[in-house]
User: Which sequence fits this backbone?
């Protein structure tokens, strides 16, 4: 058993090991709501993000913005562009933090090849949906998506408004019975 495996388990009162549940596991750090509005989401992928130390600290402090982000494929590698991570004031003085730095995304080669084919041939695009924690690491959920036409966006708004109105009516109906 490696040191990492030992540290990831706690000993319970009976002497057996049980896994440690992290409080930030699965927690969404930043979400790109605009992507769900502007695109039809076809497939979702989870990719690792290559980050520097100051970026991780800033993300934990909530200093990240994904709204203008997009994913490109160059030389068989995925890159996240436009993800803004603002440095903390307490960042070290011997580094020069760059807020709009291009971040490399890690995905299996087979998945990247599949994505390259779809993006080049069928007119799909890659957009980041969110940044979240998984296993103590920060992951990016990216989506293979097609752009929506203007009338599709209006339909999305109508459906959202109807769902909101329906919820209000149902709450009003339930509260008036009691």
Assistant:
């Amino acid at each position: 058993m490696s040191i990492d495996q030992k540290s990831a388990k706690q000993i319970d009162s009976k002497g057996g090991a049980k896994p440690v549940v992290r409080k930030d596991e699965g927690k969404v750090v930043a979400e790109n709501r605009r992507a769900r509005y502007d695109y039809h989401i076809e497939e979702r992928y989870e990719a690792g993000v290559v980050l520097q130390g100051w970026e991780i600290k800033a993300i934990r402090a909530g200093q990240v913005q994904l709204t203008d982000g997009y994913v490109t494929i160059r030389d068989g590698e995925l890159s996240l562009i436009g993800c803004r991570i603002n440095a903390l004031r307490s960042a070290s003085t011997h580094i020069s933090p760059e807020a709009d730095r291009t971040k490399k995304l890690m995905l299996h080669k087979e998945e990247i090849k599949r994505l390259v084919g779809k993006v080049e041939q069928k007119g799909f695009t890659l957009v980041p949906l969110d940044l979240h924690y998984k296993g103590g690491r920060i992951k990016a959920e990216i989506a293979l998506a097609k752009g929506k036409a203007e009338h599709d966006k209006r339909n999305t708004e109508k459906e959202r408004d109807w769902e909101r109105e329906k919820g209000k009516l149902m709450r009003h109906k339930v509260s008036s019975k009691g």
Remarks:
- The first helix runs from residue 3 to 7.
- The two ends are 59 Å apart (CA to CA).
- The mean pLDDT is 77.
